[in-house]
Amino acid sequence: MSQPVGRRTPVTNATHTQQPSGMPIHKYRGYEQVVLPDRTWPEQRITKAPRWLSTDLRDGNQALIDPMSPARKREMFDLLVRMGFKEIEVGFPSSGETDFAFVRSIIEEGAIPEDVTISVLTQAREDLIERTVESLRGAHRATVHLYNATAPVFRRVVFRGSKDDIRQIAVDGTRLVMEYADKILGDETVFGYQYSPEIFTDTELDFALEVCEGVMDVWQPEAGREIILNLPATVERSTPSTHADRFEWMSRNLSRREFVCLSVHPHNDRGTAVAAAELAVMAGADRIEGCLFGQGERTGNVDLVTLGMNLFSQGVDPQLDFSQIDEVRRTAEYCNQMEVHPRHPYAGDLVYTAFSGSHQDAIKKGFEAMEADAAAAGKQVDDIEWAVPYLPIDPKDVGRSYEAVIRVNSQSGKGGIAYVLKNDHKLDLPRRMQIEFSRIIQAKTDAEGGEVTPAEIWAVFQDEYLPNPDDAAAQWGRIQLRSGQTSSDKDGTDTLTVEAVVDGQDTVLTGTGNGPISAFFDALNTIGVDARLLDYQEHTMSEGASAQAASYIECAIDGRVLWGIGIDANTTRASLKAVISAVNRSAR
């Protein structure tokens, strides 16, 4: 029975079979939304890098199973400086002698460039504040970062105090920081101040604003005397869009906004820290605090590598140097004693790698199109816009080679295998030859499983199509070419005389045809080889006087269609070798 025009069959449980999970969802409630109907952040674009602060040596280090030794801390600090970080949180010096000693060491050893500001964290207790400021004696540029928790659950459960009590902790702490900085550091240090209402994500917006205003009333920010107000997602609790709404609300409502550096400090509990940081910048944040590769408590701080490279991939200078990303990764792995995941954005071992056949084919064609476009424009490939499928950036820009871009397993196709041969060995296989060889590799991966490396692909290719170049005397198949000479008569007929080894015997073969290849097929007929030419292609493998040519011959031999390849500085010899390659394969 036909359906009337315009009617649809209703969706039934036959096509949608999800069932309630039975999990205790009654224990949780949705995050409170911000009423901000005139929000502007969705229309904003990030066109310049924010200020960056690395907290690898503080928030990152405190989350390690095995906290960094002094040597590993110094290695991390030096890496951050090389990368271009100008604000680095170097520790929690009042928490113990280890952090205090490290801060003293980098100051006393002159390890801090004059344009780098170090930051140290403290709670709002007087003895801790004094010890913290003491650690900075002699520093050229330094910031004290004071925090106290402001969320309702902390007020009720941890501090058992009122809003006024919590606000007063922040105000009194700020006053103590100023007093000890003046007493201990004087004019020797360019001194800055940062305040964080910890657990900002669970703090009422109006109360967070009230506390920040109270702190600013003490610090008195003005031109040349900024205050850093850091609004941490100590625990990530909302969608990035709601987080952005909270930032825009705070940015709009803070007084003396022009003297405030509004800083975002996302954690990754919901897995959206990168998006939360980016949207916060769109909503008014001036600075991002995080760690390399997302190190940090629980699920980690926001990943500064991903954030910086996201900017780079959009044509925005991150003002951090990721040009040797493997060095950055190796150093971070050594310092943290934790490996970076192989699929970590931009830095993992597999992120510029394609196993899928269709992906490999698209990447191969993308590289070829880039070369063609550059040639047409009279430019180098590096000087035109990057446009290769499945690769958001050029791996070379972060110090990676193209070797691992294509990796072959049982899911791979002809494109990936062809890419390896072209990229590593300058062999641009004709399409039908790609199909033929991919079947050979497919049989290997099906039989053995796992990945086939470029070296293994080349070994299989040599064994299948080429004599072993490491053993020039070794026999390979029925026929080996020694030499060949061609002569032409006035009718355009070529006569080819070939000296060869056939079945272990020195043999002279002679044939005629309308070219050397045709004449060689005629010569092979004299020893019982029934072969005819189907296709022929060739290309140079390099430039200059010593350039070699690669010839590809498709033959019908005794009812089978086979390809052969020949490589030689002489194009005629390369063609003859290609014919022999196909003939020898037929006899295997």
Task: Describe the protein's architecture and organization.
The protein is an alpha/beta fold and 588 residues long. The chain folds into three domains: 48-336, TIM Barrel (Alpha-Beta Barrel), CATH 3.20.20; 357-465, Orthogonal Bundle (Helix Hairpins), CATH 1.10.287.1400; 479-586, Alpha-isopropylmalate synthase LeuA, regulatory domain (Double Stranded RNA Binding Domain, 2-Layer Sandwich), CATH 3.30.160.270. The chain is 38% helix and 18% strand. The protein is built from 17 helices and 14 strands. The strands form three sheets. It has an eight-stranded parallel sheet with strand order 1-8-7-6-5-4-3-2. A three-stranded antiparallel sheet has the order 9-10-11. It has a three-stranded antiparallel sheet with strand order 12-13-14. Strand 7, helix 9 (273-282) and strand 8 (287-290) form a beta-alpha-beta unit. Helix 4 packs parallel to helix 6. The longest helix is centred in the first third of the chain and has 23 residues, at 163-185. It is elongated, with a radius of gyration of 34 Å.
